[in-house]
Recover the amino acids of this structure.
């Protein structure tokens, strides 16, 4: 994939400056930049964390598809994180020689660092079951929390959620449910008594497939960015953002579907022919549900909904990474910490060195890498914003003032979401926020 | 008079669009009685998309078909009629916004040639591929 440098670098005098509180950021976006300032350290931090994120993500997407396609409605899914060899070897559609659109130059099978970690963990080589019980493993709970955020927030654009309520979906799910529980009168009886309960589980599994297909793309994108950076071919934050923008467009039309394999037979619960796409049915809902909204994490803070401490409207939820106060949410066992723990295992040496030099060194590196992750997700969100501007509005070097004003209104509306006090946009403008 | 497909073939600047319509299996529909209003992007509009975008869609006909259907309205509407309301429902289901009457703009595309009347509808030539959202 090529890196676009098309974004204009010149300021236009055709429209007056913005008076928004984040005018500086808006002008940077209008000049083809990112919400994250273009500094060598920001570039190093975000690329390093993309690499550290991509390795566990390589497990997440494989296991999410394994759960959605193979484990399916197993009532006691104790081994759902024990991914099969077939899914570890499943060729990534965007890496390896067999890929039609090769994003990462590397292997199509599970990443070597992932396989090594699965073998040894933090402790030492031992049977898989012991690693699992000792919790010395990839934290799939984080991936499932993201999936549940998408399921719970639901209607965030795209047609996916509407389809889950359609008769066609119910009929497809019904066929798969009956096939899966064939010869199991207890579960078939339960399905007859409480059909919606089982159907709801299938819907959750459809979101599981959706997120797996979404992340199957992002892992090779991040690996390739890391390789390009190591070769000195990614030299600025806007370049990193442009790579993401190009990636978003390149795979925008990828089908989002949910197939289930029961005794060797494929059941198409959401067929590819429905026309669902990676951009509209997966990426945009994911960003909205996970980066912006999510939900308050249990055990980190007490919220009084009656006192208005939790928004009435789900669209106003603001517990995602773009708003997170990384220190208090750094409690063990909640999803962001699980991800931080996962990324800790795969940090490139230059990032380990950075964390050793600042704050409490290794003792608080989970917090430091959490804040790095926050910076990196402001860059990913910038890429989404620029991709939407590119798809729905006008080029940055357009010469029609009406078009530039439309771009301005779009950027300002996006920045309005960061006016609430919890937003970390002002913090990531400074390098000493660690 | 020629139908929409014949008109596009005759114009010589819709090679990519015609290929895409063929791959998505929509040629027959656009040769049918309609009538339709088609916002037809020129070849350069597809070239302007980032690398890989068109190929991924061509590899996946249902997804390609969805994007193409966003460029088609049911019924034949001239520019004069289109500018009378801000949005029109596309065959894809999402609304197509008419942003400006002069110059005539459909979503973020500019109509470079309007009101090409065909047997089974009206074609408006646009300079960008338009996307739902």
């Amino acid at each position: 994939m090529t890196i676009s440098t098309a974004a204009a670098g010149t300021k236009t005098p055709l429209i007056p400056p913005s008076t928004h509180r984040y005018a500086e950021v808006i002008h940077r976006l209008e000049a083809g930049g990112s919400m994250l300032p273009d500094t060598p350290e920001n570039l190093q931090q975000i690329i390093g964390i993309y690499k550290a994120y991509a390795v566990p993500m390589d497990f997440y997407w494989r296991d999410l598809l394994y759960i959605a396609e193979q484990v399916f409605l197993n009532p006691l899914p104790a081994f759902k994180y024990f991914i099969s060899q077939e899914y570890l070897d499943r060729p990534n559609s965007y890496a390896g020689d067999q890929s039609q659109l090769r994003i990462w130059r590397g292997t199509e099978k599970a990443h070597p660092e992932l396989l090594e970690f699965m073998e040894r963990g933090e402790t030492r080589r031992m049977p898989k079951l012991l690693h699992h019980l000792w919790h010395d493993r990839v934290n799939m709970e984080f991936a499932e929390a993201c999936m549940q955020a998408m399921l719970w927030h639901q209607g965030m654009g795209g047609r996916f959620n509407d389809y889950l309520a359609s008769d066609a979906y119910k009929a497809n799910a019904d066929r798969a449910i009956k096939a899966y529980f064939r010869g199991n009168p207890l579960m078939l009886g339960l399905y007859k008594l409480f059909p919606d309960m089982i159907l709801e589980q299938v819907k959750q599994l459809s979101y599981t497939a959706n997120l797996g297909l979404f992340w199957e793309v992002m892992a090779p994108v991040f690996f390739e960015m890391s390789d390009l950076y190591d070769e000195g071919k990614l030299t600025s934050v806007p370049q990193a953002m442009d790579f993401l923008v190009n990636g978003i467009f390149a795979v925008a039309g990828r089908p989002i579907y949910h197939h289930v394999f029961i005794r060797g037979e494929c059941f198409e619960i959401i067929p590819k022919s429905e026309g669902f796409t990676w951009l509209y049915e997966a990426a945009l809902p994911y960003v909205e549900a996970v980066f912006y909204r999510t939900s308050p994490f249990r055990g980190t803070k007490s919220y009084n909904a009656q006192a208005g401490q939790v928004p009435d409207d789900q669209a106003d939820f603001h517990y995602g990474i773009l708003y997170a106060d990384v220190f208090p949410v750094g409690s063990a066992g909640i999803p962001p910490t699980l991800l931080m723990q996962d990324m800790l295992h795969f940090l490139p040496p230059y990032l380990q060195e950075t964390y050793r030099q600042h704050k409490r060194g290794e003792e608080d590196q989970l917090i430091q890498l959490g804040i790095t992750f926050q910076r990196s997700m402001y860059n990913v969100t910038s890429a989404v914003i620029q991709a939407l501007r590119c798809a729905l509005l006008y080029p940055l070097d357009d010469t029609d003032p009406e078009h530039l004003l439309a771009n301005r209104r779009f950027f300002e509306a996006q920045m309005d979401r960061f006016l609430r006090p919890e937003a970390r946009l002002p913090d990531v403008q400074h390098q000493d926020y660690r | 008079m020629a139908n929409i497909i014949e008109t596009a073939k005759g114009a010589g600047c819709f090679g990519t669009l015609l290929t895409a319509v063929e791959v998505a299996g929509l040629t027959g529909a656009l040769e049918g009685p309609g009538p339709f209003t088609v916002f037809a992007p020129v070849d350069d509009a597809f070239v302007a998309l980032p690398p890989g975008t068109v190929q991924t869609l061509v590899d996946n006909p249902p997804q390609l078909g969805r994007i193409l259907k966003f460029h088609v309205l049911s019924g034949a509407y001239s520019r004069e009629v289109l500018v009378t309301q801000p949005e029109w429902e596309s065959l894809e289901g999402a609304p197509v916004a008419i942003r400006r009457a002069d110059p005539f703009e459909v979503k973020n595309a500019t109509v470079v040639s309007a009101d090409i009347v065909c047997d089974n509808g009206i074609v408006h030539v646009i300079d960008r591929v338009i996307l739902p959202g």
In short: The longest strand of chain B covers residues 109-118. The interface with chain A takes residues 49-53, 55-57, 59-60, 62-67, 93, 100, 107-108, 131-133 of chain B (CB under 8 Å).
